[in-house]
User: Fold Beta-ketoacyl-ACP synthase from Dokdonella ginsengisoli.
Amino acid sequence: MPSRIRPLAITAFTATSALGRGRAAHAAALHARRSGLRANDFTPEPLACAIGRVEGLEAAPLPAAYADHDSRNNRLAWMGLAADGFLDAVRECIERHGAGRVALVVGTSTSSIGATEQAYRELDHGRFPPHLQAANLHTPHSLGEFLEAALGTRGPCLTVATACSSSAKIFAKAERLLRLGLADAAVLAGVDTLCGSVLFGFNALELVSPEVCRPFDAARRGLSLGEAAGFALLERDGAADAPRLLGYGESSDAYHMSTPHPEGLGARRALADALARAGLAPREVDYVNLHGTATLKNDAVEAAVVADVFDASTRVSATKGWTGHTLGAAGILESALTLLAMESDLVPGCLNSTVPDPACSASFAFDNESRPIRVALSNSFGFGGNNCTLAFGRAH
Assistant:
């Protein structure tokens, strides 16, 4: 088992999704049980499903200084940076530590692939149109290049692309960078936007629900896709009331390209390692934000893992009924939702779900519950069996 790590302070965090911009909008939606999902109005080709779309991206080009980076994904990143004073927090962090000592670790599944799709749709005599010819739009590191230019960080700059666990794993990478002395602080960013290849690709796998997703419901029919930008600032020390990253666990079971291991071996390993690094026993965990995609196999496997590890004193639920599955941004978005749940001592029940799957144990919350949350976990599981569990705690 891994050794216990020193907790790190989360000195700032924010999220932008279909629920709105910033922490207050997300907290209000959780408390009101108000979903951001709506009928698909994104794809020009018909696809009957629900999506979690962020308003205003089409009408919000990047500032002229960053015109060569203009894409839907980078627009969402810029919009997200403006929420909760996060951009100012990063600049203050750079003043404290120096630009060369602040790392930038980003997680994204599709990056700016939407811009590449658009370029092919608008081919001009076999060439990309001029406004989509910038090479940095057509690379998996597009998000990292843009954010480094916008933020002014000069430390290590890494992109993690491990499907749906991408922006959970950036917490683990940042912890290692700080522990090894390669940086004194890390900006964490997870951004993914809707695009045709993802919507129709998941639909081809028969994983997209024609209605809003219903995590862990007995009659669930699949996932709803969404888009989001999440950011966090990780430092060794912070204010007394700043939440802490207590631990993380990572694994890769490589069982199948798109199906989880039937016994959840990778998920179990990630969970066990997160608890070990945090120095926690399962009974000390108050809440777990599950991956909960509302697909048949993922939810069944994750429910079985929960039943084996936790008793009813630990409450568990999934929040994708609010936001949809935001792919590479899911890890950091759901970490932000978990931190908000801790702030308000609210267990957000599984939204849209009414009849629990028989595999669900007594730990599951389907309605919102008010209860103290001192320690919480967040699960993120990606295609190919790439898994990550994060452990968070109150400062005290």
The CA atoms of residues 317 and 350 lie 5 Å apart. The first helix runs from residue 23 to 32. The mean pLDDT is 96. The two ends are 25 Å apart (CA to CA).
